[in-house]
């Protein structure tokens, strides 16, 4: 199999108001997108789109697509655009869009094939839909799974007590299966010794993903721990003196954002490694008294079984070439998030699909 090497370039766009004060901010990343990274049910359709585009010289032949992304490539949610409250947000997003195009057009050495703005919640669509005026096409992606932390939970036992019997039994079984795991905090002092094994475990998770814009360089954890200290959560899971998993996340204001994990899948079922990580995220959130956990995309059903609910996300995409962009619109109309069965684990919840 061909080895894919991905590069990432980033810059920022800042809008200034008439008083020379910052009015809006956009985080921009440029990545090489490989069609081969799509491994879900859309794989055959994407391949057909690629072949068709290459024949008409609409896509670079046998080369990655140069993709400009407004948003965080490695985190789900609205992390790309920030605006001052008093600003007209519809006007601001149009100005940001124009600024992106101007930047690309003014940099003759920069070749961009397509533009992607991500991830807008339903509450922001009345603003984001302004992008349609610039020939961006919206489509839904996998939801961000969010758990609202009950203020009455003082420890994990309270969380478990709030669950229906079926889910509480499942949780206790996972905690029992994972009881042999030794969990250690990763610090600036010991991170170097653990990074190689963590990177290998992350690769196992990344290769299983149905879709990846880019692969995360775990060496970044050094800077994250240095910059954020205890606010950046990084733990490794050991079995018989061997790392079999890791989890990461950041505590910010009233939220815990779950980041990347690594798992030894051969041992995952026997020792409930991933499930233990989910319960550990919840335990940390309760201890730190945050209000929400953003679990991110993927594994939506198992995340819903611990209490997370889906937050719909929409992205906007346009190709630089108008003909390709019209073809792209037809393709994107067929793109739908993978369906999953939402679980309702808490006693005070009602499954609306149940009679």
SSE layout and pairing:
Blueprint: E1 8-16, E2 22-33, H1 43-55, E3 65-70, E4 81-83, H2 89-106, E5 114-121, H3 125-128, E6 137-148, H4 156-161, H5 165-177, E7 182-185, H6 191-208, H7 220-228, E8 232-239, E9 242-252, E10 255-263, H8 265-271, H9 273-288, E11 292-296, H10 300-305, E12 309-319, H11 322-332
Number of discrete helical segments: 11
Shape: globular
State the helicity in percent bands.
Answer: 25-40%
Number of strands: 12
Beginning-to-end CA distance, first to last residue: 50 Å
Broad structural category? alpha+beta
Portion in strands: 25-35%
**Mean of all residue-level pLDDT scores:** 87
> Helix and strand string, N-terminal first?
EEHEEHEHEHHEHHEEEHHEHEH
Instruction: Tell me the radius of gyration.
Output: 22 Å
Largest beta sheet, briefly?
12 strands, mixed
Low-confidence stretches: 1-5, 39-45
Description:
- With 355 residues, this protein is an alpha+beta fold.
- The protein contains eleven helices and twelve strands.
- The chain has helices spanning 43-55, 89-106, 125-128, 156-161, 165-177, 191-208, 220-228, 265-271, 273-288, 300-305, 322-332, and strands at 8-16, 22-33, 65-70, 81-83, 114-121, 137-148, 182-185, 232-239, 242-252, 255-263, 292-296, 309-319.
- Strands 1, 2, 3, 4, 5, 6, 7, 8, 9, 10, 11 and 12 form a twelve-stranded mixed sheet that branches.
- The termini are far apart.
- The model is unreliable at 1-5 and 39-45 (pLDDT under 50).
């Amino acid at each position: 199999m061909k080895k894919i090497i991905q590069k990432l370039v980033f810059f920022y766009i800042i809008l200034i108001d008439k008083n020379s004060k910052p009015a809006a901010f956009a985080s921009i990343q440029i990545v090489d997108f490989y069609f081969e990274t799509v491994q879900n049910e859309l794989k055959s359709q994407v391949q057909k789109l690629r072949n068709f585009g290459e024949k008409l010289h609409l896509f670079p032949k046998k080369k990655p697509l140069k993709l400009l992304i407004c948003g965080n490539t490695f985190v789900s949610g609205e992390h790309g655009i920030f605006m001052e409250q008093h600003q007209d947000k519809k006007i601001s997003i149009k100005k940001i869009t124009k600024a992106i195009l101007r930047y690309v057009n003014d940099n003759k050495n920069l070749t961009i094939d397509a533009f992607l703005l991500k991830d807008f919640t339903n509450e922001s669509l009345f603003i984001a839909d302004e992008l349609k005026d610039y020939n961006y096409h919206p489509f839904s992606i996998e939801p961000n799974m969010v758990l609202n932390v009950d203020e009455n939970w003082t420890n994990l036992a309270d969380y478990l007590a709030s669950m229906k019997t079926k889910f509480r039994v499942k949780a206790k079984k996972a905690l029992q299966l994972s009881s042999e795991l030794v969990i250690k905090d990763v610090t600036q002092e010991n991170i170097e010794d653990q990074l190689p094994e963590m990177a290998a475990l992350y690769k196992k998770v990344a290769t299983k993903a149905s879709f990846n814009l880019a692969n995360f360089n775990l060496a970044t954890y050094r800077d994250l721990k240095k910059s954020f200290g205890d606010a950046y959560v990084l733990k490794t899971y050991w079995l018989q003196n061997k790392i079999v998993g890791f989890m990461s996340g950041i505590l910010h204001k009233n939220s815990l954002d779950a980041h990347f994990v690594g798992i030894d899948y051969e041992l995952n079922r026997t020792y409930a490694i991933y499930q233990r990580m989910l319960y550990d995220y919840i335990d940390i959130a309760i201890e730190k008294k945050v209000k929400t956990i953003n679990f991110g995309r993927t594994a939506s059903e198992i995340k819903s079984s611990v209490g997370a609910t889906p937050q719909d996300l929409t992205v906007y995409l346009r190709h630089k070439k108008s003909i390709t962009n019209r073809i792209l619109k037809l393709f994107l109309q067929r793109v739908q998030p993978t369906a999953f069965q939402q679980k309702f684990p808490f006693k005070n919840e009602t499954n609306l699909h149940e009679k």
